Amino acid sequence: MSKQKLIEQKLEQALLDGRWKLFERLPSERVLAEEFSVNRTTLRAALSALAGRGILETIHGSGTRVRALPAGHPSQCDLEDRLNASLLLIPSIMHACSLVIKPSQIISLERILPAVGTALRNGDIKTFVQTQVQFFMEAARFIGNSSVNPALAACLPEGKSLMRLYSSCDLHDSETLFAHMARILSAMRHADAEEAAQATQGYFSTLKELMNKQNLSA
After folding, report:
1. For the stretch 59-82, what's the b/e string if a residue is b when 16 or more beta carbons lie within 10 angstroms of its beta carbon?
2. Which of 20, 31, 50, 80 would be 27's cystine partner, CB 3.0–4.6 Å?
3. Which conformational region is residue 66 in: left (phi greater than 0), alpha (psi within -120 to 50 degrees), or beta?
4. pLDDT band for position 77 (cuts 50, 70, 90)
């Protein structure tokens, strides 16, 4: 196993162990490189790999923060299980978020949605997936309960599974998912918790329909 892969695994385990919480900033590259006894180039490559999977986010001049918690054992939880869990949990989270979200927080979601649309128009599946996951994780954060985001991260479909699913979608399917997200955001603007929950239910129901369609055509 390469040193980079080893550092990736150590960082993921540290996140699973609760060393850093969601949206918390990691120590500097120098500190982490010394801790793991590797050079900064290797460490930076490991951080970049985790950022590519949507787990970390590195902003120039601001450091690296936790964007999403890794799934503990993704092989033990397939796409269907995760979508079923999402249908049970996430509509309630969006319902709760709609009741407490502030106008300044809605603005942050309004900045994410155009990125989803741009990725859709450009056929950029990776960004299309990452920005959708970011939308739900960011919304859940506004509830202000530290237990919500780990639960959300545990049931949201894993990025690679979503990318495989989206790669088989046609434009109409992708536009339907985007429309559901726009409904969620509109409901939050109007503090319409029931509509937010229903739109979220529609979003994950569409994903499950796409999964079933893909399995039938496999």
Report:
1. eeeeebebbbbbbeeeeebebeeb
2. 31
3. beta
4. very low
